[in-house]
Amino acid sequence: AAYTNVWGAEKEKDAGDDRCFKINVQGVLNLGSIVAERGARGIFFSTNYVFSGRNNEKTLEQRNIPYIEKSETGDINHLCWYGATKLLMEKALESILSLDYCVVRTAGLFGNDRQQKERKKSLIDHVVESVREGDKKISAVCDQHMSITSTSDLARRRAPRGASGAGPNAPDRR
Predict the structure, then answer these.
(1) DSSP-assigned letter for residue 42
(2) CA dihedral angle for residue 94, residue 148, residue 160, residue 169, rounded to 10 degrees
(3) Which among 91, 113, 138, 159 has most CB atoms closer than 10 A?
(4) pLDDT tens, 94-149?
(5) 55-67 b/e with 16+ CB inside 10 Å = b?
(6) What are the pLDDT digits (tens) for 26-70?
(7) How far is CA 167 from the centre of its chain?
(8) DSSP strand E in 40-169: where?
(9) How far apart are CA 140 and CA 125, in angstroms?
(10) Rounded to whole angstroms, how far apart are CA atoms 143 and 135?
(11) Mean pLDDT of all residues in the chain?
């Protein structure tokens, strides 16, 4: 389980709703404790939102270097609330000493799960829908570089090597 409504989390936090924190931090910490008690290995999902978006460097050229597993995460006080809860989740998992686990950070997820009636639209869904409706302009961010990840591949653990969301072969979304 995860709370994934990035901008909704921000609004809810401002309104005093701590649902995102309860699900992404406390819920995952509870799951981590159960996994540790049973001696199993846990796989937990995080996000590229744990990074500042500036790659912690000063020049534009340095900021365009892709993130890797060992890249420094952003300052928790300067991340969006969703990103902050995911980073807090990662730190909370570190506190469970007997837990054998890994964290998979994803970005640019897309999928074709038609059985899920209320699924969140991906960028690809947005583009296809806009083209079908004859829109001449498509609104999307234009300052991100990432490797998109199929949710089906991710669920089957068949995501191609380097499909980390921000690898060296990440397509340019500008």
Answers:
(1) E
(2) -100
(3) 159
(4) 999 888 999 988 888 887 665 555 666 777 777 888 888 887 777 766 667 777 78
(5) bbeeeeeeeeebb
(6) 999 999 999 999 999 998 999 989 988 766 565 666 666 777 778
(7) 14
(8) 41-47, 100-106, 109-110, 149-150
(9) 12
(10) 22
(11) 79
Picking from 32, 3, 45, 1, the residue whose alpha carbon sits closest to that of residue 20 is: 3
pTM listed for this prediction: 0.75
Q: CA-CA distance, 6 to 141, in Å (whole number)?
A: 14
Contact criterion met (CB below 8 Å) for 2 and 23: yes
Is the distance from CB of 131 to CB of 73 less than 8 angstroms?
A: no
**CB distance 161 to 168 below 8 Å:** no
Query: Which token pair is 141?
Result: 């961010």
Q: Which residue has the tokens 């420094």?
A: 72
